[in-house]
Amino acid sequence: MKYINFSQLRSFHAVSKTGSITQASKLLKVSQPTITKQIQLLEEFYSINLINRHARGISLTDLGIKLYEITTNILELEENALDLFSSNLNVHEGNLITGTSGSYYIIKLIKEFKKNHPKIKLDIISSNSNDILDKIYNYEIDIGVIGKPLNKNFKSNIFSIPYLKQNIVIIAGKGHKFYGKKSLNINELNGCDFINREPGSETRRVLENVLNKTNNKINSVMEVGRVTMIQAVKENMGLGYISEPEFENYKDVKKIFINNTDMFTQAYVVCLKKKKSDNLINAFINTAKKII
To answer: Could you give the CA distance from residue 9 to residue 73 in angstroms, rounded to a whole number?
Structure first.
């Protein structure tokens, strides 16, 4: 009678998930030859081909793609079992991987969560909203606190609740004509040089929507992440924009409010619907609801 070797499936899943035997080796903390041998044994035992190997790396065969869907479900069940064992039907112990598109979104929530669950280990992954959502789909993150992602990425298998609203402010460097101003009208931004946020940034999406609605255009000097944007603004290369809680009284950088439009980001707590009832995830969601 043929049977499934779980170690072989785990090696296949790791390679499929990371797209690399090298990365799979790091993920599982076993040697590359071991990974390669496990997959080879799996393919030989069933006389199948799961992975195409070529100079640029690996790709999955049609059969491999179907098996990856199955191993994803299998390993999720294993994770659920481990959560059950580690928590002993409560939320006093365990590990929760969280993701956020802004530390200001999640720090207050984590602080409150740790008060009631001090022994829970929390890992935080920071990226833009759409990347965090992708990592939730790929089971790399358990739960996220993000700005609203692109609608096409907000799939039906995602559970979400609105969390916090954050005003967006303009930032200007010393020497810029707006540096001494406390507020502006949106029309005053028309034609100004801006250091733009990277594609996928919720803050950028909101600003662009407001500019489009008011028939204003800005001149995008470059597209960068938040930290680089602040430095470029400080060097007076253009204006920037940021959620107000992100502003930390930077030297030679001032925040400016837009006083004739409602411009804010809306944060959401998100996870896979199928994982919502997991002990730790459910406890995290309930903490967010109390803050709201």
So the answer is: 12
Pick the CATH number of 6-76 from 1.10.10.10, 1.10.10.1320, 3.60.20.10, 2.60.120.10: 1.10.10.10
3-state secondary structure of 102: coil
Residue 227: the pLDDT is 87
Which has more pLDDT, 201 or 48? 48
Residue 41 CB burial class (10 angstroms; 0-12, 13-18, ≥19) = middle
Query: Is the pLDDT score of 278 beyond 80?
Result: yes
- Neighbour count for residue 251 (Cβ, 10 Å): 6
Domain borders along the chain are 6-76, 86-163+266-291, 165-265
- Global pTM value: 0.55
Check if 6-76 and 165-265 are the same fold: no
* Confidence check: pLDDT of 149 > 80: no
- Exposed, middle or buried by CB within 10 Å (0-12, 13-18, 19+), for 119? exposed
**pLDDT at residue 85, as a whole number:** 62
Strand boundaries in the chain, DSSP class E? 51-54, 57-60, 94-100, 120-126, 143-147, 158-173, 183-184, 193-197, 219-224, 240-243, 253-258, 264-272
Q: Which of 224, 228, 233 shows the shortest CA–CA distance to 253?
A: 233
Q: What are the Cα distances from residue 89, in Å, to 71, 84, 92? A: 25, 6, 9
Rounded Cα–Cα distance for residues 204 and 188 (Å): 18
pLDDT in tens, 44-56: 888 899 998 887 7
Over the Cα atoms of the chain, what is R_g?
Answer: 23
User: The dihedral of CA 134, 121, 110, 112: what is its sign?
Assistant: positive
